[in-house]
Amino acid sequence: MKTETAGVLLKKKGLRCTDPRVRTLDVILAGDRPLSHAEIEERLEPRLDRVTLYRVLNDLAEAGLLRRITTGAATRFGASDHAHAHFTCDACGITTCLETVPVPRPALPMRYVVEGVELNLSGLCPGCSNALRPDEPEVEEK
User: Based on the domain organization, do 95 and 142 belong to the same domain?
Assistant: First the structure.
């Protein structure tokens, strides 16, 4: 998804290519991690008013172009091209996409239809865990 332009993606979903939608989607596609409303607002130049930005984010999420990642009280937005896990650090608050961590598909009783699965993990990121325990060797969990 990140290789296509915002305009192309909007057109594929049948959305009009308005300036606020294109600029907002460009900011999210350029991000290296899911971004909060405030982070998106800071990166938009010129800025959009908050209500417009909320509406644009909602439109893009409803169209399937963005994924809402809700962890605790914070909601972040990331490009939605495939299911993957997200990790939010309890110390610094940064949410990271874990592209290589598979998202399990649960086996459900008959007549249930899965339309989405999210895997949100929390704990300490490598930077914060190293800062708290600098003398411990790094061990990869299995």
Answer: yes
Domain count, the chain: 2
* The pLDDT value given to residue 63: 93
Closest residue by Cα to residue 88 from 109, 73, 71:
71
19-30 and 50-62 helices, crossing angle to 10°: 70
Q: Is 40 helix (H, G, I), strand (E, B) or coil?
A: helix
Q: Is the same domain home to 54 and 6?
A: yes
d(CA 111, CA 68): 26
pLDDT of 116 above 90:
no
Checking if the pLDDT of 15 tops 80, the result is: yes
Show the domain range for 129: 82-142
Report the relative pairing of strands 120-123 and 85-89 from DSSP bridges.
parallel
Residues 51 and 22 in one domain: yes
Q: 54-97 pLDDT, tens per residue?
A: 999 999 999 989 988 887 778 889 886 667 788 989 998 888 88
Nearest in space to 119 (alpha carbons), one of 132, 133, 105, 138: 105
